[in-house]
Amino acid sequence: MRATRKLHDLGQSLWLDNITRELLNSGALRRYIDEFSVTGLTSNPTIFDYAIKNSASYDDDIRQKAPAGGSAEDLFFDLALGDLTRAADLFQPVFARTDGVDGWVSLEVSPLFAHDAGKTLVAARAFHERGGKPNLFIKIPGTKEGLPAIEEAIFSGVPVNITLLFSREQYLAATEAYLRGVERRIEAGLNPAVGSVASVFISRWDVAVAGKEPSELRGRLGIAVAGRIYKAYGALLNSTRWLRAANAGARPQRLLWASTGTKDSHASDIVYVKALAAPFTIDTMPQGTLEAFADHGTVADVLPSDGGDCETVLASFAKAGVDVDALADRLQDEGAAAFVKSWVDLMSQIELKSRAIRRQGDIGRLW
Hints:
By secondary structure, the chain is α/β, with parallel strands linked by helices. It contains 16 helices and 8 strands. The chain has helices at residues 3-10, 21-25, 28-36, 45-53, 59-65, 72-97, 117-131, 146-155, 168-187, 203-209, 221-237, 240-247, 271-275, 287-296, 310-319, 324-366; strands spanning 12-16, 38-41, 105-108, 136-141, 160-165, 196-201, 254-258, 281-285. An 8-stranded parallel β-sheet has the order 2-1-8-7-6-5-4-3. Helix 7 links the parallel strand 3 (105-108) and strand 4 (136-141). Helix 4 runs parallel beside helix 16.
């Protein structure tokens, strides 16, 4: 039995942290579902920027739609939804079998709105309606400005993947926004079973302190932060407040480990996957990490429900001068800025391709 199947059977969902037209057309995504127990996927501006920039697979669609004269952003969402709705159909059997617990795909609102709750909410509602798939999450950053949009989106019945979370405090703020939206639906007599996941980024912690931490702490910060958050996750699911909502029909918001690809060339390529094995969570893996774990991964211990030695490790980092709270805020800001850069690059790439195709059309008409 593959290690990916063992991880799935342990109770953790394996999602692919990628989407490209080639993955769909080649049958690779179908193979990951059948052979590697993949049950969902996520996307972001960086993923689409790379896919469109480095592939001709989107050129025909751009050629057909560019002459209409719409914006690069409109054209991008046409392309992205084309891919994601196809992927959503592939995961529909999982979605149906698990009654909506698993089998999701995700589309992110424009990262330019990360600090604008009003525009984020308008975009989230529009993309939810436009996507037309019950297993499509709309990704909203868990920034301070994003939290009101998350609450309103949930209250509106829009399934939300809350992204760009790094610390326990950011995670708890995100779950609070989700719960408020659910509780408002209960009070209004609406169905409270609106899907949501909270995406916590892991590997960027260790990148941020690389070369600054004592050697014995190398590569341990991200996992320690994850342990602290996992403990908070368990406490929330056992809280009186959550149990009241569950009794009214609400669905638990699942915890998702994001950014679990190894960025340290000296570390194991599956170090985070092994360390973060935990029931009722999701691990989103880049293709390389998924392939590596399927090839030589092992499933042994699960992440302790009490966080294990996370507080001891975090205390050691504090002693070494690492302010976890300040670093979490910095990482969230940097993550939002990185997505904005990818978004700007992506819009430029689409505009360049669109102009080139329009010029080709003009030349063709002259002849």
